[in-house]
Amino acid sequence: MAWKSWTSWRFVILHRLPIKRAVCLLALLGWQGAACALDVYVIDMNSSKSSFSDSHTLKLVTAALEASSPKYGPYEFRVAALRMERDRLLQEMLKGELVNLSGQVTSQEWEQKLIPIRIPIDKGISCYRISLIDSRNQDLFSAARTLDQLKNLSLGSGRQWSLTGTYKQAGFHVVEGTTSAGLHSMLAAGRFQHFPRAIDEAIYEQAAYVPSFSTLSVERSFALYVPSPRYFFLGGGQKRLAQRLEYGLQQLIADGRFDHLFHESYDGLIEKSGLRKRRIFHIDNPLLSPQTPLSNKAYWYNPY
Questions:
Q1: Which domains does the chain possess?
Q2: How many CA atoms lie within 13 Å of 262's alpha carbon, on the beta-carbon side?
Q3: Coil, strand, or helix at residue 221?
Q4: Cα–Cα distance for residue pair 220/144, rounded to 1 Å
Q5: Tens digits of per-residue pLDDT, 192-250?
Q6: What is the rounded distance in angstroms from the CA atom of residue 101 to the CA atom of residue 114?
Q7: Is 35 in contact with 23 (CB distance < 8 Å)?
Q8: What is the pTM of this model?
Q9: Where in 70-214 does DSSP place strands (E)?
Q10: How far, in Å, CA of 184 to CA of 174, rounded?
C-alpha cells in the first residue's frame, strides 16, 4: 500500500507542478536517486488535428524516448494543459517550466534561442503547402500556371508564423491574422483568396470549418514547396533532454521505425491531397539556416 500511495503522489506531483519544481520536490521527499535521473518532457498542444493524442508528433516522441531508455534511463512524457500562440510559447519554452518541448516550423529566432534537433519531424512533408479556398474561386487557381500568376492572388498567414516573412520576401500579397481560427474567419469574409496550410492541417481544418463556411474547400491544382522543416525544440537550456531525444530519433532512423511511423501517419493524407498530381511551385527560403541538413536524403520525403 505504501508503494502504491507513493506512486500516486509521484504522479500528482509530476502532472500538477511545473517541471523543475516537481523534480526538486520529489528529491526533497526522499526520491533523490530517481528524481535526479528522471528526464521530464512536457510538449505543447499545437496540433490542428482533431485528436492530438493520435498525432504523428506524439507517437514519434514516445517511440524515440522508449528507444533511448536503455542508454538514458527512465523518463516522464506528458502534454501541456495550455494551448499557446507562438510568441508566448517561445517565452514559456525559454523558462522551461510549463512546457519544454515543441515541434515547430523552424525560424532563425527559435534556432538561436532554443536547442533545435535538426531532424525534420515529418520528413519535410510540411514544406509542401496546399491551400484552403472558397470553392467558387477554384477556376482562378487552376488558371495560375506560373508562380508569378499565383502571386496575384492574396494569401493569409499568421503574424507570428515563420513562413509569413518568407511569403513576403517571395513577393506574395500577404494578409496577416493573429490565429488560425481568425484567419479562417477572414477567408470566409473574403479578406484574402487562399490560406496555405500543411497537408494534414488543410484536410483536418477543411472538415472542421466547413459547417460554418459551406464553400470551404481544399484547392486542387497546386502546392507550394518552401524549405521550412519542422524540428523538435528544447527549452530551458536542457541539453541532456535534447541529446537524449536526438539519440532516440537516430535509433528510429537506423532501424526503420522513423520511416514506418511517417508512412503510417501520412500516406493516406498524401493520397487524399493528390500531392503527386499537383503543380509544385518552389519558393526559396532565404531565412533558412545554413545548418539545415538538406543533403541528408534519409531525412526528407520525396513524392516522386
A1: 1-37 (no CATH), 38-122+229-273 (3.40.190.10), 125-225 (3.40.190.10)
A2: 19
A3: coil
A4: 12
A5: 999 999 999 999 999 999 999 999 999 999 999 999 999 999 998 899 999 999 999 99
A6: 10
A7: yes
A8: 0.84
A9: 75-79, 101-105, 115-117, 128-134, 155-158, 174-177, 195-198
A10: 14
